[in-house]
Amino acid sequence: MPQKVFPLDSNKKFTDQQLIGHNRWHPDIPAQVHVKPGDVFRVDCREWFDGAIVNDDSADDILHAPLNSVHVLSGPIAVEGAQPGDLLIVDILDVGPIPQEDSGPLAGQGWGYTGVFAKTNGGGFLTDHFPDAYKVIWDFRGGKATSRHVPHVEFTGIVHPGLMGTAPSHDLLRKWNGREQALIDTDPQRVPPLALPPQPDSAILGSLTGDDFERARNEAARTAPPRENGGNQDIKNFTKGSRVFYPVFVDGANLSMGDLHFSQGDGEITFCGAIEMGGFIDLHVDLIKGGMSTYGVSENAIFIPGNTDPQYSEWIAFSGTSVTLDNEQRYLDSHLSYQRACLHAIDYLTTFGYTPIQAYMILGAAPIEGRLSGVVDIPNSCSTVYLPTGIFDFDVKPGKDGPARVDPGMGVPVARA
Amino acid sequence: MPQKVFPLDSNKKFTDQQLIGHNRWHPDIPAQVHVKPGDVFRVDCREWFDGAIVNDDSADDILHAPLNSVHVLSGPIAVEGAQPGDLLIVDILDVGPIPQEDSGPLAGQGWGYTGVFAKTNGGGFLTDHFPDAYKVIWDFRGGKATSRHVPHVEFTGIVHPGLMGTAPSHDLLRKWNGREQALIDTDPQRVPPLALPPQPDSAILGSLTGDDFERARNEAARTAPPRENGGNQDIKNFTKGSRVFYPVFVDGANLSMGDLHFSQGDGEITFCGAIEMGGFIDLHVDLIKGGMSTYGVSENAIFIPGNTDPQYSEWIAFSGTSVTLDNEQRYLDSHLSYQRACLHAIDYLTTFGYTPIQAYMILGAAPIEGRLSGVVDIPNSCSTVYLPTGIFDFDVKPGKDGPARVDPGMGVPVARA
Amino acid sequence: MPQKVFPLDSNKKFTDQQLIGHNRWHPDIPAQVHVKPGDVFRVDCREWFDGAIVNDDSADDILHAPLNSVHVLSGPIAVEGAQPGDLLIVDILDVGPIPQEDSGPLAGQGWGYTGVFAKTNGGGFLTDHFPDAYKVIWDFRGGKATSRHVPHVEFTGIVHPGLMGTAPSHDLLRKWNGREQALIDTDPQRVPPLALPPQPDSAILGSLTGDDFERARNEAARTAPPRENGGNQDIKNFTKGSRVFYPVFVDGANLSMGDLHFSQGDGEITFCGAIEMGGFIDLHVDLIKGGMSTYGVSENAIFIPGNTDPQYSEWIAFSGTSVTLDNEQRYLDSHLSYQRACLHAIDYLTTFGYTPIQAYMILGAAPIEGRLSGVVDIPNSCSTVYLPTGIFDFDVKPGKDGPARVDPGMGVPVARA
Amino acid sequence: MPQKVFPLDSNKKFTDQQLIGHNRWHPDIPAQVHVKPGDVFRVDCREWFDGAIVNDDSADDILHAPLNSVHVLSGPIAVEGAQPGDLLIVDILDVGPIPQEDSGPLAGQGWGYTGVFAKTNGGGFLTDHFPDAYKVIWDFRGGKATSRHVPHVEFTGIVHPGLMGTAPSHDLLRKWNGREQALIDTDPQRVPPLALPPQPDSAILGSLTGDDFERARNEAARTAPPRENGGNQDIKNFTKGSRVFYPVFVDGANLSMGDLHFSQGDGEITFCGAIEMGGFIDLHVDLIKGGMSTYGVSENAIFIPGNTDPQYSEWIAFSGTSVTLDNEQRYLDSHLSYQRACLHAIDYLTTFGYTPIQAYMILGAAPIEGRLSGVVDIPNSCSTVYLPTGIFDFDVKPGKDGPARVDPGMGVPVARA
Question: Which SUPFAM superfamilies does the record cross-reference, listed alphabetically (chains A, B, C, D) (predicted)?
């Protein structure tokens, strides 16, 4: 095992650990770990709600999920010699659920969950169609996931960190806060909100204390959105073997990470989201000095995915265009066209006996691919969603005999908002 | 060779052929070909501009491209017994450039083109960055494409029809025209336009004549957007071996197709677009009676991609979020985040010596993948674009020695608007 | 279409064509076609028995197959500037059945065959188990093969030339004849024979005539075995997009080819063998001057397979060791261990309802993989054979409910020796 | 972590552990672990020489390797209800090096080795060309291996157990001993030997003691060869996610396993062999009652490989035929043709600067594929070996500029016999 530089004890809360991470982005959060270019090390990661979501058949915990508390991140980790303008190379050597613990109350101990927030509590990609809170528990066995709430489906995990990134500079943080507030101001009462402003409540800022803490928690950025520093990109292909290149904005780079997923479909459309878990990640870091200008990388991450992602050679795909269900024409709206493609996939899967929310959960958790197929054919964007047929234990392709009928079982727990 | 039911002579204009196709969608265009479920047949397809784009080193033809004339489609082909509510199974048995003709003045005769329209003439995905008209010629040798305008890159074609679909019913056509006009009305003077209303000029409606022709050409839908009938979906994975399921809206289904692409990246971001060519397509058709309700397919196409697409196991990926270059925050705008990911890829490739327009052309023509990676992390959508590293004849990955420098050669022809 | 340098008329016998190929290897066979490095050209190829095998439900033609007449090859093609010691680069740009002819009496006109010779007429890999003559007809539709003689299986063709090679020098030819006769002399009466000596009967030697013909036909090598020049390697991965490097032994290289296969499993275990057909092959040639010593290639072919082979992600595999069915232990005999692995696969498939010969035919024709898994664990070699599960229209994996039962239909035509 | 049913302490010898495994096959070795169908459990495995091979730059340990002591196996594990005639389903849920220990003196603690035995001590596949003892140390980082002894190559591990199998019955054991002794008797003095008879010296037989031990150690079968019970099959594709079906010959099945490999090429041609290591394996077991006759599986293993093996899309392949280097023609000898293919690959790699033994070591350790390409074209078998080009950090393909030259570094340690 590589040296563990950021340990987490599964029996303690995130704020009671030996090293305390953070759940906001701020340049003043001190690095608690120092590594050198070339180092290999392990980082423990807590599931994003710090254990608030449990392994049962109720969605009440999702309905009341403490949104102000997320995402609990491990770090910051300072890399010796890193300076603004460099590219930080991060090799994901390994990533997985909590090692040696395959049962227990914490997501990552042999199980994980996919949730859908109620519309009044954050919503999701298809919140108008699924306005309540829902939860599905997935059991891990070896590298595969199955669920008592969604029978007849099993898939190999495409394990990855949903969130990883470097610390923003003060300038960058100001930029974020400015532009996001401007968006919020266009419709401040919207449900769900357009964006999340700094939220002092429940802020965790590592070892920061006193006045520094008070000041920082009022300006620290929320971790939900991906931004110039990487962050919550939720890219399902950040798997074992991947090499990622992050821009560096502060001395030491100050890398943090968390929000591990056992599996996820492109888009993480269920929002709460993927198959959430805690676990570990083994990293190797290095630097390309001055790499941001050398390679023209001013922001966001560049990456080379690993080569051991699960292989599926047969897919069934669904397409959608940027027209609403009410027949309103939108202009090249790829977000909408992906929603329509996903809704088509859901309609299709329900003809096999699944409930709509079961189908939605499959799209959120399984390694589906979401593609921007046509983005220029005015006025209609065309998006497509690809399902691997091999994850179902029945023949999911259309045929002349009509769909096989599967028993949906106990179904998906729901909690009405 | 399967029986050729829709022949095209490469030496004649589209309107001088034995059978005359169409370039608008309208239910009254008579089927000119009749096939039965189970039949296998060949259809010739003309490149979408009917030969207006030539194999030279000027972009003048793109600048003056006759947009009212597109897309010239082969069909309609009526399938015996097809009725509204059925699913039409279409197997793409083979598809390729014009057989036995590998040199000549017509795209598809051993070559094809990728164009970018001037902003004043339709624009493209990145039109604010590339406002002029540009053209790249690609030469085909075996299954691979190379270009004198974009050196050091070669890729295996992922050949597919950009456009295929069934005829709309009168009701469906009215629905299209209504919603698209409503969108246009929100900003009628926009350049480029929000959508394209019916355009009687240059309309070709098969064998339709007289009053019927006059009436129909004023209401027939343009072929640019994909819609409920499939249409111009530009899905790069509609390759040989694919099985597609189309909803049927009129008796006979009245299938039409065209806009063949030798290769295309997800999004067809260059608009004019992919590697355009004429050629042939071999099809097998069958029916699932009543399949639309049986399988919950009310619109758009479902498909199972073929299993011989070119394999690349190493990719370099770029991400983008829904923030404009001017730092304006947009709300979950996946269109914008894909633009930003593509711009990042362009910035990156230029550090190797390519001009920006060369890099743009690679993204439009090569089999890149565009993914909707995160669509819920308010306010930022995250999109990613994946380039196969194996298409370059140099090492395109970042490293400590900095980028290899390639000679961009003569570059991309441009015509200023 | 590339320029066709070696045409064949499907209505004429191989010896009645405009250019006459050959069915023996000899350095004196004159090149009939001359190309230059960099050239792209098309070659027609006749199926290896020149039409002696027909599309019917009898195996009589296989029983009486004229073995002295094979393989009818197209060529030789001289490459300008090629000299002994060079490496000849051959790019397989495209390869397929006879274009524009998808029905007719000649294999390659929309159909092909797999045969097993009677033990008294050449036998096959499992001739002790299948001592008679058998034949299966496969129909091509698009890129896929199905057979009335082997139902419930369909696979994408992995089209390739079974035989391609450069001409031997006189020295090399002598070497071949010497060593092969020495082997024959160890058991001259063996049935089937250990090797095939030069056979003047039925020899075709291109344009060679008179005394030259008489002398050459008595010393020209048979085409069955692969040798230093490439030759009948039967490598299923010589598919479209492959680049092959052949050693050059005579001025001009004198490349010849034939024995096209629509599909084949590793080993071509049925001998007659793969799915045999005539068709076309498009080639590009180039030279690496002095490449044999530069790259240490003294013999046989090096190649880089194409990247569009059919993808199957799920396989069921069978293993065998080098022990005979009579429990005799052989020493690291990989030939035997592969036989045992194949017999295990046959035993397995028969539990689903196939006859043993149907199962054998699947292994010969479908894109199975044969691996040398262990070659050092004395005394037992271990070989494995991998079947893609996706070629069957039923679930071919073992399970608790026992095997699905398929209707074997009319079965495989047989002719008793 | 699944329950560990067979623990090994890295600080103790194999015979000093809490549970003592075995290094011979015998039906009387008592099961030390009992599991039920459906159980998931972990087994520790020791590297096959129990630590005799060390991490240094000398091959003396390989020269003097204690061959009588191998393979140290974990087990037997009895599965409740298993009876002769059943099929034992074994799912390989996970497999890897020793967890939490990535440095130390034991192979599997962050490193592994590939050896070649001296000809006088067992030899290897190419022992006539490499008659001495050689050793290469590989370092593991994440899922990849590199070596100070073979620079410029790095590959993703295709981790698997080289050896797993069920216990033989008394009848089956007698059958083995009889046929192997008969082979030995044909040339008893051969170096290396044709097979290995029972060897009482160094035998470890689990908890067996007293007279039972004395009797059993004189008749227990050596573990080197694969046999009807699976055993030392060295199949590189027994990776995570694989499902294997073993025949059951004794009550409880009595499954044992060991000889873990971090990576291996088809054939394990270096014999000592693959990248050897100790580690862990997580298994799930189940039964198909009576499955041997239901599925026609009388012996050897059937398996479905996992779907996360490393993906490489570009390969360079070498072919060989069954002619010796002295030009002696052998009859369809696939063992010889694979040797010739491997020698061709070695000749090729040496033109880039590698020493021959470095090239041999690459073929033994990297995930190369060995194929039985042609097994019927008398008298020449054709075998092929495929190298993934992506494992080299230089362009390994042939070109007009000649091979890149790599620095072979310190090279491979050798110990002369």
Answer: Acetamidase/Formamidase-like
pLDDT band at B26 (very low <50, low <70, confident <90, very high): very high
Higher pLDDT: D90 or D121? It is D90
- Give the three-class secondary structure for A160: strand
Report cis status (omega within 30 of 0) of the bond before D71. yes
pLDDT at residue D102 is higher than 90: no
Whether the bond between A71 and the residue before it is cis, its omega within 30 degrees of 0, is yes
Homologous superfamily of A3-304 in CATH? Acetamidase/Formamidase-like domains (2.60.120.580)
Using beta carbons and an 8 Å cutoff, which residues of A are at the interface with C?
Answer: 311-314, 390
Which ranges in chain D are annotated with CATH 3.10.28? 315-409
Instruction: Tell me the C-alpha distance between C80 and C75, whole Å.
Output: 15
> For the segment C387-410, what is each residue's pLDDT rounded down to a tens digit?
999 999 999 999 999 999 999 999
Report pLDDT for A192. Answer: 87
C13-17, C122-126, C319-323, D326-330: the lowest-pLDDT one: C122-126
Residue span(s) of chain D under CATH 2.60.120.580 come to 3-304
Q: Is the pLDDT of residue C1 over 80?
A: no
Q: Distance (Å, rounded) from C-alpha D47 to C-alpha D49?
A: 6
Query: Which residues of chain A are modeled with pLDDT < 50?
Result: none
Candidate from D100, D156, D284 with C-beta closest to A307: D156
Closest residue of D to A282, CA-based? D142
Q: In chain A, what are the helix, strand and coil shares in percent, each to the nearest 5?
A: 15, 30, 55
Dihedral angle sign, alpha carbons of residues A231, A233, A234, A236: negative
- Mean pLDDT (chain D) is 96
pLDDT for residue B1 is more than 80: no
Q: Look up the pTM and report it.
A: 0.96
Contact residues, chain B, for D311 at CB < 8 Å? 313
How many Cβ atoms from other residues are within 10 Å of residue B17's Cβ?
Answer: 17
Q: Is the peptide bond before A403 cis (omega within 30 degrees of 0)?
A: no
Neighboring chains of B (3 or more beta-carbon pairs < 8 A): A, C, D
Across the interface, do C373 and D235 touch by the CB < 8 Å criterion?
yes
- What pLDDT score was predicted for residue D100? 85
Q: Give C222's contacts (C-beta < 8 A, 6+ positions apart).
A: C24, C25, C196, C197, C198, C199
Number of CB atoms found within 10 A of residue C94's CB:
20
Segments in A139-209 forming alpha helices (H): 170-184
Inter-chain residue contact D311 with B312, CB threshold 8 Å: no
Residues of B in contact with C102 (CB under 8 A): 1-2
CB-side neighbour CA atoms (13 Å) of D364: 30
pLDDT band with cut points at 50, 70 and 90 for residue B301: confident
D152, D154, D155, D314, best to mutate vs chain B, most B CBs in 10 Å: D314
pLDDT exceeds 80 at position B327 = yes
Query: Mutating which of C154, C155, C314 best tests the A interface, going by the most A Cβ atoms within 10 A?
Result: C314
Say how far apart CA A340 and CA C100 lie, in whole Å. 41
Residue C208 scores a pLDDT above 90? yes
Q: Which of D91, D147, D125, D106 is nearest to D14 (CA)?
A: D106
In CATH, D315-409 is 3.10.28: yes
Residues of each domain in chain C carrying CATH 3.10.28? 315-410
CATH 3.10.28 fits domain C315-410: yes
Question: How far is C275 from B368, CA to CA, in rounded Å?
Answer: 35
The residue of chain C with its CA nearest to that of A390 is: C314
Residue A272 is encoded by which pair of tokens? 């709460």
Within a 10 A sphere around the Cβ of C310, how many other Cβ atoms?
Answer: 21
**What is the enclosing helix (H) or strand (E) of C60?**
helix C60-63
